[in-house]
Amino acid sequence: MRSLLVIIVAYLIGSIPFGYLIVRRKVGSDIRETGSGGTGATNVSRRAGKAAGVLTLVLDALKGAAAMLIGETVNGTGWVITAAAIAVIAGHIFPVWLGFRGGKGVATGVGVFLIAAPIALLCAGVIFLAIVFLTRYVSLGSIIAAVLIPVFVWLQNVFVEPVADLRPLLTAAIVGALLIVFAHRGNIERLARGTESQI
User: Fold this and answer.
1) What total number of domains does the chain contain?
2) Is the pTM of this model over 0.85?
3) Most exposed: 60, 65, 132, 151, by fewest CB within 10 Å?
4) Contact at 8 Å (CB) between 119 and 199?
């Protein structure tokens, strides 16, 4: 019962639509009707300015970190924490408060792996920055970084910090990456057509 509660709380934390609330407060419009339609930091920046985007990024990342810390505190088993990690990312992408239409899950995933696998996150972050610098496509950098997180989690386990059972963490990384790629399906179509917005 306690494990199920952790997962539900993680999902509800992920569902808090900070980007939507910030834009509604600052501009008075629905962020989902702007740009990519997501509630994340990139889209918020385009609609309400860089400061609003940075605030959204920080708050969305804190959601992921909070869910992980709650999972570790309340029930420290690997699979429950894995479920909490997946639930908080899913909550951000499919928030119950906004008709299951939210953001892309990237910043929330950053918060998750800042707690779960910081070295892997750092490596993925370097790749993200390099891709964005070279192409000016935030979405492309996000997709590739998300896909590489499981690889870096595995490499971290092999070369840096071995764990007794890698399966829970690797599962969280793989499922999280799949959710993020799914959330970017519209961006992938625009990238293929050459119509994706650049920064």
Assistant:
1) 1
2) yes
3) 151
4) no
